[in-house]
Recover the amino acids of this structure.
C-alpha cells in the first residue's frame, strides 16, 4: 500500500498559499477538449483546467453521464474528438483494450512535479493515467442509536447482524440495515465488495476463466441474503439516490454506502439536521473470518487521447495539472477523497480512509471484469428474493458470463 | 402515377429512411453473425494508488493487426442467436431431457434470461394493448356525450399522460408509489395492509408497469376514437333508434363497426410500441422483477464498459422478427384490402 | 348530437359524470402534484416522514421562511442556464416538424396515389423500420458520426429524429391522403397541370388538418426524446430532457433534484399552451385522416 496520506499532510498547507496566477498555465497554444462524467468533484477539476484558456489555448468540456458510451467512438477517430478522457478504475479498461490513450511518462517528467507516485497509474511500465480521487463503500452508522442501545460500531458482518438483531428486538427499528441492492450495476458492486473481502480472486490466475463458484462465493451470497432479512422489502429499488431519504427519515441505523456521498449525509443544512449530526463513518465490515474490509477501492483519473497532435496532448496535460492544483483542492476539500499531494481528510472521508488503512483491495482492472459485473447484476436478484438457490444463482452468473466472454473473445 | 413521378415525390423520405434505418438494420443483421476476435492477453504489472498487482491486459497492438485484417470479427453464423443468452437451444434441449414434470420445465425455462424477458414483453403487449383500446374507447364515448363547453378542458387534461416524459415517470411517479408516497400510502390504507409495497413484490411490480402503460397510452387511443366518433353517420344512428335499438345496441351495432379501422390503426401502433417496452422498467427500477427484450439490448450496449454489439444485434433482430410475427394478421388484412382497391 | 344527450336516463348521466371526473383525476393528478411540489424543497416534496409535507411544506418553511419557494426555478433557469436547452429544444422541434412534414407529405401523397404493388411493400418496410429499437440504432450511429465529425451538433440530431419518425409520419399522411378524393388532383391534371402543380394547387390547400395532427405527433417525439438526444448532443447543445436528466446527475446532489422538478414543470407548460391552441385542428385532422387506418 503506497498510499501517501500521512506523509503529505504537512506539505499541504504550504502549497495552498503558493498559487496565484491562474490564467497563465504557461501553455503557448493548443486545444484542450475534456470528456468526463457529471458530478461535483469533476466539475471542479474541469473548471480549474478551463482557467488555462487564452487567446491561443482553447479549453472545452463535455460533462455527461453518457461519457462511458461516447468515449470509445470519440477517441477512435483521428483526430480524436476529445483530448482528455476522465475515467475510473473500470472505464479506463476499454480505452486500454482499444489502444486509444497515450503513455504520459514524457509529460509527467516535464510538467508533473506536483504528482505523487501513487497518482500514477502504471500499466506494463508506462504511465497511462493520472488518478486524482479515490472512492469506496464504507459503513455509515447512527452514533446516537448505537450508543443508546449499548452497541459498539460493527467491524464485521457478524457484529452488524447482531447489532441489527438487537435493534429489532428492542423495538427500535424493524429494518435497521440498508445497502444499494438494486439489481444491475449496484447489486453487482455489493457482491464484488464482499467477494474481495474474502481475499479470493474472481478469475483463475492469468485467464478469463471464472472462479467464483466456490465456498467464498456461497459465503458472500448467504451474507447478502442475511442483509436482505434486515432490510426493507423495497431493497430491490435501493440505489444511492433512493437510500438517502430513507436514512434522513431515520428508518435505518446501519448502511453500506458510497464514500462520495458522505459529505451530503453529514450536511447539517440538509433536510434532517439531527440525523446528519449523529451520522458517522467506519471501514466497511469484514466478512466471515477474514480481516479485509469488504469494499472495493476505486480511483478516478484522467487519460490523454492517442489520436491527437503532440501539441494538443501537451496543452491538455498541462491544463489538467492546473485542474489538479492544490488551490483547486483547497476550494473543494469536501467534494472528494483527493489523492492530490497535501490532502487532509475531512470527516466525510473517514470511512474511505479507514478502508484504505485496513487493507481493502482495489476493484480489479481486468479487461473482462465489466462482463462479470453485468452478469452478477442480472442474476443475483432471484436468489435474494428466495426464488432460487445460491448454487443456481452462481450457475446462472457463470452461464451469463461465459456466454458474454465467449462473444467478446476472452474465452473459447 | 408513373414510376418516375413516384420517385420524384418519395425520394427524400426514402433516402432518410434508407440511410438512418435500413442500412443500420442491415449492418446490425450482419454484425449479429460475428463475434469478437480471440483476445490476445498478456500479463503485466499494474500500479495505482492502491498498490501494484500482476494483472492481465489485452495486447492492443496485436489485436489492432487482427482487426485490420478482419474488421467484423470471427464469423459465428447463427451461434449468437442460439447461445445461452438468447434462444438457448442447447439449454432447452437439456431442460426437456432432464426435467421430471411440466412445472420444472417451466421454472427452468423462465430462468433463462431471453425467455424471462420475452414472457414479460408478451404479457405487457397483450395486456396493455387491449386495455388501452377499451379504455380509450370508453373515454371517447363519455367525453363525446358531455356538454360542449366542457369538452375543451376535458380533452386537454386527458392528453396529459401522453406527454409525460420518461423522467417525470422515474422521478415523480416513482416517488408517489413509494410506500411512504401519496399513492403508496393511500393503497396501504385502502387495503389496510401496512406492509404493502408496490416496489417490493414481483407481481405488484408487473401490475404497476401495466397500469402505467395503460395510463400513458390511453390518451392516444382516446384522441383517435374521439375524432372518429365525430364522423359516425348520424342518419344511421337515428334510423337505428327508429328501429327501437337500445343505447347499448346502437353502440354495439353502429358505432363499434364504424370505428373498427381506427381500432386496427391503434392496435398496429400500440402492439409495436408495447413490444419495445423499455423506459418504464428503468424509470420504476423494476429490473428485478421485469425485464423486456429492449431492456436486454440496453443492458448489452450500456451497462457494460465494453458493449456487446453482437449480442445486442441478435436481440434487436429477434425483436424485429417478433414484431413482424405480431403484425402478420394485420398485414394480411391490409394486403387483401390493397389488392381489392387496385 | 345534443338531442341524443338530452334523452339520456339520469343514472347514465351520473355514471358518465363520475367516470369523467375519475379519469380527469387519474390523468392530471401527477402533473398538478408536480406543479405544486415544484415550489417546495426536496425535503418536503420527497419527504419520507409524511407525504402531507409535500402539501404543507414544513421544511420549506424552515429553510426559506415561507411555505413556497422559487429556489428550484431560480436554480434551473438562472444558475444552470436552463434557457439554453429551451432554445436548443425550440430549434430541434421546429426543424424536425418542418422537415418531417415536408418529406412526409410528399412521400405520403405519392404512396396514396400510386397504385403499384411496391407501394404496399414500401409501407410494410416502413413498419418494420419502426420496429427497430432506438437504443440499437443510436449506438450504431456513434462511430460513423464521429468519423464524419458531425457528432454533437443540432442538425445531425434533427436529421436523425426526422428519419426515425419518418415511418410513422408516412403512415399517417398516406392514410390521410387516401381520404382526399382522387378527382380533386386528377381534375387539375386534366386541366393541364403536371403532377406537382396539381399537388401544389389542389392538394396543399385542403391537407392542413391531417398535416397538423401528424405534426403534433412529430413535435411530441422531438420534444420528449431522450434516447437520441442524450447520446448525440454535447453538453452545450443539450435539449431540455437530457438537461433535466443532468440535474439528477450520476449522483444526486442536495437541492438539484428540485431543479429537475422545476424544469419538468417548465417543460410541460409550453405543451399546455400548444395543445390548447391546436386542440380543434388535432381532432379534426384525425377525423379526416386516420379513419382509413
Amino acid at each position: 500500500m503506497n498510499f501517501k496520506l500521512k506523509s503529505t499532510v504537512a506539505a499541504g498547507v504550504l502549497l495552498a498559499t503558493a498559487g496565484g496566477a491562474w490564467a497563465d498555465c504557461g501553455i503557448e497554444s493548443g486545444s484542450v477538449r475534456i470528456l468526463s462524467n457529471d458530478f461535483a468533484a469533476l466539475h471542479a477539476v474541469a473548471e480549474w483546467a478551463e482557467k488555462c484558456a487564452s487567446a491561443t489555448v482553447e479549453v472545452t468540456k463535455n460533462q455527461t453521464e453518457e461519457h462511458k458510451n461516447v468515449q470509445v467512438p470519440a477517441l477512435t477517430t483521428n483526430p480524436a474528438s476529445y483530448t482528455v478522457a476522465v475515467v475510473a478504475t473500470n472505464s479506463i479498461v476499454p480505452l486500454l483494450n482499444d489502444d486509444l490513450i497515450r503513455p504520459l511518462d514524457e509529460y509527467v517528467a516535464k510538467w508533473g512535479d506536483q504528482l505523487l507516485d501513487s497518482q500514477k497509474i502504471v500499466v506494463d511500465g508506462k504511465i497511462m493515467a493520472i488518478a486524482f480521487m479515490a472512492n469506496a463503500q464504507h459503513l455509515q452508522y447512527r452514533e446516537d442509536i448505537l450508543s443508546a442501545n449499548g452497541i459498539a460500531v460493527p467491524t464485521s458482518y457478524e457484529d452488524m447482524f447482531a447489532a441489527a438483531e438487537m435493534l429489532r428486538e428492542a423495538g427500535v427499528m424493524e429494518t435497521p440495515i440498508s445497502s444499494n441492492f438494486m439489481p444491475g450495476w449496484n447489486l453487482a458492486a455489493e457482491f464484488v465488495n464482499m467477494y474481495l473481502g474474502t481475499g479470493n480472486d474472481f478469475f483463475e490466475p492469468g485467464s478469463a476463466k471464472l472462479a467464483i463458484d466456490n465456498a467464498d462465493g456461497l459465503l458472500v451470497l448467504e451474507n447478502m441474503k442475511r442483509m436482505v432479512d434486515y432490510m426493507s422489502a423495497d431493497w430491490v429499488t435501493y440505489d444511492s439516490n433512493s437510500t438517502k431519504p430513507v436514512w434522513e427519515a431515520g428508518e435505518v441505523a446501519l448502511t453500506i454506502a458510497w464514500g462520495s456521498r458522505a459529505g451530503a449525509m453529514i450536511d447539517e443544512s440538509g433536510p434532517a439536521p439531527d440525523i446528519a449530526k449523529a451520522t458517522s463513518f467506519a471501514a466497511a465490515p469484514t466478512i466471515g473470518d477474514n480481516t479485509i474490509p469488504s469494499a472495493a477501492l476505486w480511483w478516478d483519473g484522467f487519460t490523454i487521447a492517442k489520436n491527437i497532435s503532440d501539441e494538443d496532448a501537451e496543452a491538455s496535460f498541462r491544463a489538467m495539472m492546473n485542474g489538479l492544483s492544490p488551490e483547486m483542492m483547497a476550494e473543494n476539500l469536501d467534494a472528494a477523497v483527493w489523492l492530490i499531494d497535501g490532502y487532509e481528510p475531512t470527516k466525510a472521508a473517514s470511512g474511505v480512509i479507514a478502508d484504505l488503512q485496513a487493507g481493502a483491495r482495489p476493484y480489479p482492472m481486468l479487461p473482462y471484469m465489466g462482463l462479470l459485473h453485468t452478469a452478477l447484476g442480472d442474476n443475483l436478484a432471484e436468489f435474494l428474493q428466495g426464488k432460487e438457490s445460491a448454487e443456481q444463482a452462481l450457475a446462472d452468473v457463470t452461464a451469463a458470463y461465459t456466454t458474454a466472454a465467449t462473444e467478446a473473445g476472452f474465452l473459447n | 402515377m408513373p414510376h418516375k413521378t413516384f420517385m420524384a415525390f418519395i425520394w427524400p423520405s426514402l433516402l432518410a429512411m434508407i440511410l438512418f434505418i435500413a442500412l443500420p438494420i442491415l449492418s446490425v443483421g450482419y454484425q449479429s453473425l460475428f463475434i469478437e476476435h480471440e483476445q490476445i492477453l498478456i500479463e503485466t504489472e499494474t500500479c495505482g494508488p492502491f498498490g501494484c498487482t500482476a494483472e492481465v491486459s489485452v495486447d492492443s497492438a496485436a489485436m489492432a493487426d487482427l482487426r485490420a485484417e478482419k474488421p467484423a470479427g470471427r464469423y459465428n453464423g447463427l451461434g449468437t442467436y442460439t447461445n445461452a443468452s438468447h434462444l438457448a437451444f442447447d439449454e432447452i434441449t437439456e431442460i426437456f431431457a432432464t426435467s421430471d414434470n411440466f412445472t420444472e420445465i417451466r421454472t427452468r425455462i423462465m430462468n433463462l434470461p431471453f425467455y424471462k424477458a420475452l414472457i414479460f414483453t408478451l404479457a405487457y403487449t397483450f395486456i396493455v394493448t387491449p386495455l388501452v383500446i377499451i379504455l380509450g374507447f370508453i373515454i371517447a364515448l363519455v367525453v363525446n356525450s358531455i356538454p360542449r363547453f366542457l369538452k375543451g378542458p376535458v380533452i386537454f387534461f386527458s392528453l396529459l399522460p401522453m406527454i409525460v416524459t420518461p423522467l417525470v415517470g422515474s422521478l415523480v411517479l416513482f416517488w408517489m408509489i413509494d410506500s411512504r408516497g401519496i399513492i403508496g400510502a393511500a393503497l396501504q390504507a385502502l387495503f389496510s395492509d401496512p406492509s404493502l409495497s408496490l416496489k417490493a413484490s414481483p407481481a405488484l411490480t408487473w401490475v404497476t408497469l401495466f397500469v402505467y402503460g395503460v395510463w400513458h397510452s390511453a390518451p392516444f387511443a382516446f384522441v383517435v376514437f374521439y375524432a372518429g366518433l365525430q364522423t359516425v353517420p348520424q342518419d344511421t344512428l337515428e334510423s337505428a333508434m327508429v328501429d327501437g335499438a337500445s343505447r347499448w345496441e346502437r353502440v354495439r351495432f353502429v358505432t363499434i363497426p364504424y370505428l373498427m379501422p381506427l381500432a386496427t390503426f391503434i392496435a398496429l401502433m400500440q402492439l409495436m410500441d408495447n413490444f419495445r417496452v423499455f423506459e418504464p422498467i428503468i424509470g420504476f427500477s423494476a429490473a428485478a422483477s421485469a425485464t423486456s427484450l429492449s431492456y436486454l439490448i440496453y443492458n448489452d450496449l450500456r451497462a457494460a464498459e465494453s458493449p456487446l454489439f453482437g449480442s445486442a444485434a441478435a436481440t434487436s433482430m429477434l425483436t424485429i422478427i417478433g414484431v413482424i410475427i405480431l403484425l402478420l394478421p394485420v398485414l394480411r388484412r391490409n394486403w387483401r384490402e390493397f389488392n381489392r382497391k387496385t | 348530437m345534443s338531442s341524443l344527450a338530452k334523452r339520456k336516463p339520469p343514472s347514465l348521466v351520473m355514471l358518465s359524470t363520475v367516470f369523467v371526473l375519475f379519469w380527469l383525476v387519474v390523468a392530471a393528478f401527477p402533473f398538478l402534484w408536480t406543479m405544486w411540489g415544484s415550489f417546495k424543497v426536496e425535503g418536503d416534496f420527497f419527504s419520507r416522514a409524511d407525504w402531507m409535507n409535500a402539501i404543507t411544506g414544513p421544511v420549506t418553511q424552515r429553510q426559506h421562511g415561507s411555505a413556497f419557494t422559487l429556489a428550484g426555478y431560480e436554480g434551473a433557469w438562472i444558475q444552470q442556464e436552463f434557457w439554453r436547452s429551451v432554445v436548443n429544444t425550440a430549434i430541434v422541434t421546429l426543424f424536425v416538424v418542418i422537415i418531417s412534414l415536408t418529406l412526409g407529405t410528399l412521400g405520403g401523397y405519392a404512396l396514396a396515389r400510386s397504385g403499384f404493388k411496391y407501394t404496399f411493400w414500401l409501407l410494410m418496410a416502413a413498419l418494420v423500420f419502426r420496429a427497430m429499437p432506438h437504443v440499437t440504432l443510436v449506438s450504431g450511429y456513434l462511430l460513423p458520426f464521429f468519423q464524419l465529425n458531425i457528432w454533437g451538433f443540432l442538425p445531425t440530431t434533427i436529421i436523425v429524429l426526422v428519419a426515425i419518425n419518418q415511418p410513422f409520419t408516412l403512415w399517417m399522411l398516406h392514410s390521410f391522403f387516401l381520404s382526399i378524393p382522387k378527382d380533386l388532383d386528377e381534375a387539375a391534371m386534366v386541366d393541364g397541370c403536371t403532377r406537382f402543380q396539381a399537388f401544389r394547387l389542389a392538394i396543399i390547400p385542403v391537407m392542413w388538418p391531417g398535416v397538423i395532427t401528424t405534426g403534433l405527433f412529430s413535435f411530441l417525439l422531438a420534444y420528449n426524446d431522450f434516447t437520441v438526444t442524450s447520446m448525440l448532443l454535447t453538453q452545450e447543445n443539450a435539449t431540455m430532457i437530457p438537461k433535466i436528466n443532468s440535474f439528477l446527475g450520476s449522483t444526486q446532489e442536495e437541492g438539484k433534484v428540485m431543479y429537475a422538478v422545476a424544469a419538468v414543470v417548465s417543460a410541460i407548460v409550453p405543451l399546455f399552451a400548444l395543445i390548447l391552441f391546436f386542440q380543434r385542428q388535432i381532432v379534426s385532422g384525425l377525423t379526416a385522416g386516420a379513419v382509413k387506418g
About this structure: DSSP finds 16 helices and no strands in chain C. Residues 1-6, 289-293 of chain C have pLDDT under 50 and may be disordered. The CA atoms of residues 14 and 20 of chain C lie 10 Å apart.
